[in-house]
């Protein structure tokens, strides 16, 4: 499976409506605090926008709702994975991306036969507190050797000037939150990401 090299992560369908029509082809809906009715409505709206724009939607964490709403791709972290019903996810035909932060997590992830593996935080991130030190670029090469032929997603502290480094080190895809959502002009920044990832598309 090939992933688009630019993987946008946002926390609402409104963000998806704002940025996906610019040409984004891979987006994650990552909502951490919301009741089930709200989540369901966000997933439905995100799914409709992505379908209209030829964009792959990946739902973070909420695998049960993703199944019920007939989504086709989820992302889970290690704790999410431990609590999830992998058989139900597979039975529903969902593709699965998994987070990894160290060797033990990589072993666990590969045993689950995911559709991609994410490694982070490559650089320091301001989005959330993390117990892992920044992984650095060398780790990307090591992970790629273990993960191939699956796609490797790099995440954490990425910006357009760091893209050459992560792709040259072996990442297939670069995921981003705050470099775009906290930018003064998120649309212009998303366009810059689209342009700067073009060589790897
Ligand atoms: C592409 C991608 N990589 C890593 C994560 C982090 O997942 P997780 O460790 O479960 O943490 P939360 O995002 O759920 O807080 C991700 N969401 N996407
Ligand atoms: C959600 C997330 N997961 C990470 C991991 O390492 O698993 S790093 C991260 C935050 C990414 O945000 P930004 O692009 O703003 O640094
Ligand atoms: Mg999670």
UniProtKB/TrEMBL annotation:
Keywords: Magnesium, Metal-binding, Thiamine biosynthesis, Transferase. It catalyses: 4-methyl-5-(2-phosphooxyethyl)-thiazole + 4-amino-2-methyl-5-(diphosphooxymethyl)pyrimidine + H(+) = thiamine phosphate + diphosphate; 2-[(2R,5Z)-2-carboxy-4-methylthiazol-5(2H)-ylidene]ethyl phosphate + 4-amino-2-methyl-5-(diphosphooxymethyl)pyrimidine + 2 H(+) = thiamine phosphate + CO2 + diphosphate; 2-(2-carboxy-4-methylthiazol-5-yl)ethyl phosphate + 4-amino-2-methyl-5-(diphosphooxymethyl)pyrimidine + 2 H(+) = thiamine phosphate + CO2 + diphosphate. It is an enzyme of class 2 (transferase). Its cofactor is Mg(2+). GO terms for cellular component: cytoplasm. GO terms for molecular function: metal ion binding; thiamine-phosphate diphosphorylase activity. Residues 12-180 form the Thiamine phosphate synthase/TenI domain. One of its GO terms (biological process) is thiamine diphosphate biosynthetic process. InterPro entries: Aldolase_TIM (IPR013785), ThiamineP_synth_sf (IPR036206), ThiamineP_synth_TenI (IPR022998), TMP_synthase (IPR034291). Its EC number is 2.5.1.3. It holds the Pfam family TMP-TENI. It comes from the Bacteria. Pathway: Cofactor biosynthesis; thiamine diphosphate biosynthesis; thiamine phosphate from 4-amino-2-methyl-5-diphosphomethylpyrimidine and 4-methyl-5-(2-phosphoethyl)-thiazole: step 1/1. PANTHER family: THIAMINE-PHOSPHATE PYROPHOSPHORYLASE, THIAMINE-PHOSPHATE SYNTHASE. Belongs to the thiamine-phosphate synthase family. This is Thiamine-phosphate synthase. It comes from Pseudaminobacter soli (ex Li et al. 2025). The lineage of its organism: Bacteria, Pseudomonadati, Pseudomonadota, Alphaproteobacteria, Hyphomicrobiales.
